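Form 7-S
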Amino acid sequence: MKTVIIEDEKRTAQDLADTLKKIDGDLEIVSILSSVKQAVEFFKTEDDFNLIFSDIQLTDGLCFNIFKSIKITVPVIFCTAFDKYTLEAFNANGIHYILKPFNKSSVSEALVKYQTLKLNFTTQDNNKLIQKAEQQITKQPASSIIINQGEKIIPINIQEIALFYCENKYVFALTFNQKKHILTHSVEELEGICGASFFRANRQYLVSRKAIKDASRHFNRKILINLTIAYSEKILVSRLKAPSFIAWLAQV
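Output:
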């Protein structure tokens, strides 16, 4: 089986490739693509592959822009950090996914699903499923998140949150009025829930556009985010994510 991986995080892409090879030693990784632009150019000339694993949010846009530009004739399995309700919609539409962070078990399950998909696969059906997935992903983001305080279930408006961050394996929300709340969501799930008004600066931080005062060039072509609220830790955007961060600042 020949597979293409579309993923903008180099470490994640390599982890997925290594996991696939461990599961199936005969599986061939044809190419690892890191952007919408690169994928479109690749698919214009290459068609010798059986399956695509694709991240949804790439540095230069959603992966669905690839499939709008190029006719895809093989099944696509999405790698996603979106919330469980979106994932349920994927299942209902016949689309399979790997939830980030993935593991060997979830990747194995995806390959089993592929074996089922290919038996009754048609290009027309695949295009319809991808369109449905896009509609689900690009719907209006959630307006609130839920926190639990003892027996209480409390909704907090996302617009009140300056940033989400991971600390000592726990995830917290910090509001603009400096209140700190512990959450049960992962940062990956929150990235999917909050939509384009938040940016994933790095593995630890998800920052609201409203909380960003400005940004500064930093060592090794990283970017330092300066907040509108008091916060003691430095929030750095990696060199690879810097171009997409600057583009996001201009658009949101």
